Each structure stands twice: as C-alpha cells, then as structure tokens.
Amino acid sequence: MLSFCYVCIYLHLKIIAAMKILSAQDYSQKLRVSIQASGKLSLTNETVRCLGIDASSRVVFGQDDADPKVLYFILPDDRTRQDAFEVRASGKYFYIPTKTMFDALGIDYTSDDAAVLFDLVRMESMDEEAGGKVFKMSNREVTDDVE
After folding, report:
1. DSSP conformation class of 130
2. Higher pLDDT, residue 65 or 3
3. Rounded to an integer, what distance in angstroms lies between the CA atom of residue 54 and that of residue 89?
4. How do residues 131-144 score in pLDDT, each as one tens digit?
5. Which residues contact 105 (CB under 8 A, 6 or more apart)?
6. In angstroms, how far is the first alpha carbon of the chain from the final one?
7. What is the C-alpha to C-alpha distance for residues 65 and 67, in angstroms, rounded to an integer?
8. What is the Cα–Cα distance from 26 to 10, expressed in whole angstroms?
9. Is pLDDT at 4 greater than 50 in this prediction?
10. Residue ranges of E strands in 65-113
11. Cβ neighbourhood burial of 100 (10 Å; 0-12, 13-18, 19+)
12. pLDDT at residue 25, as a whole number
C-alpha cells in the first residue's frame, strides 16, 4: 500500500509551499500479473502481499472507452460485488479464472512467441468512480528473442 508523508514549509505562520515526499519504499514494489497458457491470470507473490490479496478477495476488470486495449485491474471496496471475479488460491499460488474474458477480448495468451505480462500501475484518481483501488494493466511484451 502506498503511504505518503506531507510536508509544509511555513514562513511567519503562512504556508508558502507544500510538497509530497515520495518514498523509495513506495516505488520499489513490482506489482505484476501474467496470463498463463490456461487463460488464468496469475499474481506474483509480491503483488499478493502488497495489495493484501487473499482467497476471499475479488477483482473487477475495466476496459478503457477510448482505447479498448487498455485494461484496468480493480480491487473493489465491496467484496460481494456480483460483477467481480473471485481470486482463487492453490497453495501459495493465487490466480483469477479469466480465460473466457481474455478469449472474448481477443488476447492471444497461447502463442509460443511471447508471454503476456502486465505491470500494475496505480490510478488513484479513478478509485471513487470505480468503487475500489484501480490499477492500469500496462502491457509488458516479453519475447524469447532476448539479445
């Protein structure tokens, strides 16, 4: 979870500037998810830990109106939300059964040429509208042709 410390600079009891301290701890987290060959969306251990995800968590996905290729990963405030996907656990491994969704969106996750990986980028300005914590799923193309 991101936490920020606010600092105000005072001069004769007047605020002359305000700034937000950006902590290295907040930006060292690597929140990532990947689509497995089975169509399941798997979550890294660090993503599970940092976002406080457990077997009772649910996730909603959003699609950008202007660019349908842009997807959002939303942790809803309401865990009983009917349009949310259940997070499932298998031992220490967490995944979301998303095969049908990715098939409908035309995302090729079965190709031998590339893995489908996403970095989760926090979009705090969208939280209120979405009813939860919003993360943009930023596509990371990884191919076997590493030089």
Report:
1. H
2. 65
3. 8
4. 999 999 998 766 55
5. 63, 68, 71
6. 35
7. 6
8. 26
9. no
10. 71-76, 85-86, 88-90, 93-96
11. exposed
12. 59
Question: What pLDDT does residue 137 have?
Answer: 96
Identify the pLDDT of residue 30.
86
Q: What is d(CA 116, CA 71) in angstroms, rounded to the nearest whole number?
A: 13
Q: What is the pLDDT of residues 40-59, one digit of tens each?
A: 999 999 999 999 999 999 99
Instruction: Please calculate the CA angle 49-54-60 and round it to the nearest 5 degrees.
Output: 100
Q: Which amino acid is at 91?
A: G
> In the predicted model, what is the mean pLDDT of the chain?
84
Kind plus residue range of the DSSP H or E element containing 134: strand 132-143
DSSP string, 5-57: EEEEEEETTEEEEEEEE--HHHHS---EEEE-TTS-EEE-HHHHHHHT--TT-
The structure tokens listed for 61 are 């996905």
Residue 10: band (very low, low, confident or very high) from pLDDT cuts 50, 70, 90: very low
Two tokens, residue 71: 């997807």
* Under 8 Å between Cβ of 84 and 60: yes
Amino acid at position 21, single letter? I
